[in-house]
Write the structure tokens for this entry.
Amino acid sequence: MSQAPRPELTLLYDGGCPLCLREVTFLRGRDQRLHPGSERLAFVDIDATDYNPALHGGISYREAMGRIHALRADGTVLHDVEVFRAAYQLIGLGWLYAPSGWPGLRQVADGLYGLWARWRLPLTRRPDLDQLCRCRSEATPDHP
């Protein structure tokens, strides 16, 4: 029996964030339509109580909640807008994020993403990162 191919990119996302869920739904659906049975993207919900950093590049819950991360099949860690450039490339929409990698625009895109990442929790009416981490450490003391 053959093993399913390893995804090219695994995105770590916050399953408690409605906007993040919307993005994951879009990416997953497009990937499944383009690559049925051999999807190129995988998704890991960092908000799940069984999220284990050791299985995902050592990226802690706090790090993952602070900004988006993804892991390439070779273990390379991507973050911020670079994650979206890679994911959209794999689903045939790379042109949408390509300008965000151009010199000059890269810094602007990363700066804007940094603002979004900083304000994502309050904008989605969620507790702040420190409170989420405290609640998580109380609920799952075995995982950082």
User: Anything to note?
Assistant: Residues 105-123 form the longest helix (19 residues). The mean pLDDT is 90. Helices lie at 18-34, 61-66, 81-90, 94-97, 105-123, 129-139.
